[in-house]
Each structure stands twice: as structure tokens, then as C-alpha cells.
Amino acid sequence: MRSVLLLSAAVASFMGGASAFNAFASMTKPKPVVSDAPPSKMPMFEYLKFDKNPTFDVLAKTKQYVESQSMGGQMSEEWYAEDYVLRGPVIGPINRSDLRASQKGLGIVAAFPDIKIDTFGYSVDPENPYRCFYFQRWRATHIEDMDVYGTVYPPTGKEMETPVATFCAVWNPEGKIIYEQVGAVVDRLEGNTEGKAAVFGLIHTGGVKLSATPGDAVFSFIQRVGHWVGNQGRSWSREDEIPKWWISPSRGADAEPPFEE
Predict the structure, then answer these.
(1) DSSP readout, 95-140?
(2) DSSP state, residue 94
(3) What is the pTM assigned to this prediction?
(4) Which of the 8 DSSP states describes residue 256?
(5) Dihedral, CA atoms, 46, 47, 49, 53, nearest 10 degrees?
(6) pLDDT tens for residues 51-102?
(7) Measured between alpha carbons, how far is 7 from 208 in angstroms, rounded to an integer?
(8) Plot region of 223 (φ>0 → left; ψ -120 to 50 → alpha; else → beta)
(9) Residue 112 in contact with residue 251, Cβ under 8 Å?
(10) Cβ–Cβ < 8 Å for 66, 134
């Protein structure tokens, strides 16, 4: 159980600031929004469209943001809105404060000093001009000890290649990031991490062999125990600290129940 809690907290802490070393993208002008697109069935995604008329180049700004990040390093808070939320397949919703707190006690990056993250395929959502998607593929070698909150996994010498995963950033009209979705695997058969992308791939390569998939009831239960204890980082924020615009009841690896209009 402790390994599951470490995994969940570690992923939550790093996914909000993963770098894009060697990032490449076409700086083509974003396509116009489809004016007759139907409203989103999940209201919070309709909310995130704001006025549907950004005054800045969302694609260029997203590329600048991704390239500015330093894997495991200090992230500038200037990028983020006060009501920011991060969500991944089995982590989140988590706010900026909890992401920063979860970074303490981690040594994942030191274990993979040659990490390379290729970022490509930037594309603005045709139904939300404030939302930009992109892809990442991670490669690294487990060269040093991997220290995760005091649990040390010795180097395996294994070379890691993750499957491609999708990410997105949603900006508010003030040019701040209000929402990030991270690490959704495109093809789980790619790479050598058993379908685990991004930081999940690093930890898997380092020796933590766990199933962590959306809807996994056992993993979800263990996450909730860790959330209640809260002494090794959180997989999601406390209810009263999650921004009000976030209305999805799903937490961590919980399955997403259908929204009732």
C-alpha cells in the first residue's frame, strides 16, 4: 500500500511542471473556432471556453510555457491562475499549492539524469480557442538511486521509452493557465513501460510495478487512504481547496460518473 501512495503522490507533484526538453512544433496559426459547435455536455468544459475570443496566440503561448519548464525544478507561478486545477488519468483534481508541497522529499529526476522529453503536435481545440493540446514521448535511463519519500530503489540501468501521451493547457482571458490535463496515453502498446506514460513510466522503470488505471477500485481505495493520511503528498486537493468551477465528483483513479443535466 505504501508504494501505491508514494507513486500517486510523486506523479501528482511532477506532472504539473514536466519539462519539454528538445520540444519541436509548428508555429502555424490556430484554426478558427467552429462557431456552431454544440455546448459541452460537461458544464465545466463549457465554462472553460470563456468568451471564446482570446486576445493572444494560444498555441504560441502554450509552446512558450512548455519550453519554459524545468523538470523537477522551480516553476514560475506567474503562469498560473489562482483557480488552477491539474487532472490526470489517476491524479487530481489538485491545486497549485498542493502540487508545490508534494515535490518535497522526491529524488526521481536525479535517478534519470539523461531524461529527454520530445514535445510535438501542438493543436488548438477547434471548439475551445483557449485550449491547446500537445503530445509528449519520454526517454531516460535509470542510472542513480531513485529516492521516493525515503524509499530508495537502486539503479537498474534500464533504458525507458514511454508511449506517447496527450497533454493540454487551458488559458483564461487574462492569459493564465486555469486547467491542465496531463499524461493520457495514446497507445498503451508503445514503449517498454507496460503502457505507463510520463512520470508513471519513470517510476515503473525504477522498480515500482503497480497497476494504476482509471476505474481501478483497489487503487482508488488506497489513494483515499493516502489522501486521508496526507503526509506524503496528495493525489488530489481537499474538497474546500478545489476551485468552485471544478464540478466533477471523480477523485484520483475514480471512474467518472455520467453527468446528469
Answers:
(1) -HHHHHHHTTTEEHHHH-TT-EEEEEEEEE-TT-TTEEEEEEEEEE
(2) B
(3) 0.83
(4) -
(5) 130
(6) 999 999 999 999 999 999 855 556 789 999 999 999 999 888 999 988 877 6
(7) 8
(8) alpha
(9) no
(10) yes
